[in-house]
Amino acid sequence: MSKALDGVRILDFTHVQSGPTCTQLLAWFGADVIKVEKAGEGDATRGQLRDIPDVDSLYFTMLNHNKRSITLDTKNPKGKEVLNTLIKTCDVLVENFAPGALDRMGYTWERIQELNPRMIVASVKGFGPGPYEDCKVYENVAQCAGGAASTTGFDDGPPVVTGAQIGDSGTGVHLALGIVSALYQRNSTGRGQKVLASMQDAVLNLCRVKLRDQQRLDRTQVLKEYPQYPDGKFGDAVPRAGNASGGGQPGWILKCKGWETDPNAYIYFITQAPVWGAICKVIGQEDWITDPDYASPTARLPRLKAIFDRIEQWTMSKTKFEAMDILNKFDIPCGPILSMKEIAQEPSLRETGTVVEVDHPTRGKYLSVGNPIKLSDSPTEVLRSPLLGEHTEEVLKQLGYREDQIHELRAAKVI
Ligand code: COA
Questions:
Q1: Which of 18, 113, 121, 228 has the greatest CB tally within 10 Å of its CB?
Q2: How many helices (H) and strands (E) does the chain have?
Q3: Do strands 120-125 and 92-95 pair parallel, antiparallel, or not at all (unpaired)?
Q4: Using CA atoms, how far apart are residues 393 and 409, in angstroms rounded to an integer?
């Protein structure tokens, strides 16, 4: 079956996590992704957080499926000749070097356009134009600068970063959308363009609801769905809301049977208004259905803590999965707190290809997260990540290089 991005060729200059997330998605949709790595070294993540000596790390293998790898010293004049040919034959160059690195290499936007006016140049940077544009940035810096850390955690504790890699992988997903949009526009303009996704911007986009709440707070000095209401104090910035849902339907994380020994024996419970009656029946508190202090969402807001304490008495008598079964029968929105161990073993995620087992020549079998976006006419087959420089000869031959030329480049350590 054909793939959505068949025929699109990507010059992949990405490393670490944000850029590789983007190009992996494009590869899963069928693009030919040629990852260009420093000769002899490769993407730094190949050697980071290794669990098996001398074997590409899971960090690398899980972010670079379905790509081809070539090694190339792009600072060497001979290497630049190869790179020029690649630029002429690719549709998109994706990079997430530190600010200015591509220019220092000699590949300004103008130079790339000279070589290939149809080329789309897509970049992840830590910050967009402004005071921090020259800064190097990693995941947690973006979470802090994009508003996630100040709004995550509990009121009486410090800012907290989240385990979801919203700065790196989150930005990679944003960049991928920018790239396919630019490819689409190129159909009518015939021209390439620059695509920029800054990590601060992407995190802020994902924290959009918190900027909503900032403005609500500015206007009314209170956020009634937040745990600080009604007894705590509000300052002038959106506070950390613990496990509050933050939306119009109050929610909280509640203990389930076994919580004393299992750190994940919890359930997220949402007191959605339309099923309030069902919630009261399930927990055996039917008087709350008509009691004016509890009958309406507005009446419940100042009593949320007491309400969740009462619901928790019920959830603590059930395992999280028993609670799920019962609550789902009544359409009460809830979700078990799943550990990574449970997710790794979950059969339904294996069946949909969201969790996949991949075989690797030096590592053996490992688990990975497959393509979370399913296209009915472009199914994803997850293929193992390439070894360093595994496709150098193959790609050079496709570009028209002869055996002896390849031999020369190898002898000069350009590839
Ligand atoms: N051949 C020769 N040189 C190469 C090369 C190749 N194939 N590929 C890269 N290089 C060079 C670059 O030109 C650069 O050289 P320069 O500093 O002399 O100009 C150098 O390798 C290193 O690049 P850099 O991006 O600065 O790596 P770093 O390890 O110092 O920094 C980051 C890493 C992630 C902090 C930085 O790349 C960054 O801020 N990126 C943008 C934001 C981002 O994506 N962050 C999240 C990463 S998950």
A1: 18
A2: 17, 11
A3: parallel
A4: 11
Q: Which atom of ligand 1 is closest in space to residue 71's alpha carbon?
A: 7
**Quick one: tokens of 364?**
């053996």
Burial class (CB in 10 A: 0-12, 13-18, 19+), 179: buried
The pLDDT tens digits for 265-304 are: 999 999 999 999 999 999 999 999 999 999 999 999 999 9
Q: Give the active site residue among 12, 43, 73, 168.
A: 168
168 is catalytic: yes
Tokens 């993540």: give the residue.
45
State the DSSP string of 381-405.
---PPPPTTTTHHHHHHHTT--HHH
Beta carbon of 96 within 6 Å of any ligand 1 atom? yes
Cα-to-centroid distance, 9 and ligand 1 (Å): 22
Answer yes or no: is the C-beta of 315 below 6 A from any ligand 1 atom. no
Residue nearest to ligand 1 atom 19, measured at CA: 101
Query: Which residue matches tokens 């007491």?
Result: 306
Global pTM reads 0.96
| Residues 67-115: tens digit of each pLDDT | 999 999 999 999 999 999 999 999 999 999 999 999 999 999 999 999 9
Q: Distance (Å, rounded) from C-alpha 313 to C-alpha 317?
A: 7
Q: Which residue has the tokens 């098996």?
A: 52
SS3 271: coil
96 alpha carbon to ligand 1 midpoint, in Å?
A: 7
Q: Where are the beta strands (DSSP E) in 281-338?
A: 334-336
* Residue 172 neighbours by CB distance under 10 Å: 28
Residue 283 and residue 317 in contact, taking contact as beta carbons nearer than 8 Å: no
Cβ(143) – ligand 1 distance below 6 Å: no
Q: Which helix (H) or strand (E) holds 62?
A: none
Q: CA 305, CA 225: separation in Å to the nearest integer?
A: 11
What token pair was written down for 399? 């570009």
User: For ligand 1, is residue 18 a contact (CB within 6 Å)?
Assistant: yes
Query: Residue 280 Cα, ligand 1 centroid: separation in angstroms?
Result: 57
Q: Is 104 in the pocket of ligand 1 (CB under 6 A)?
A: yes
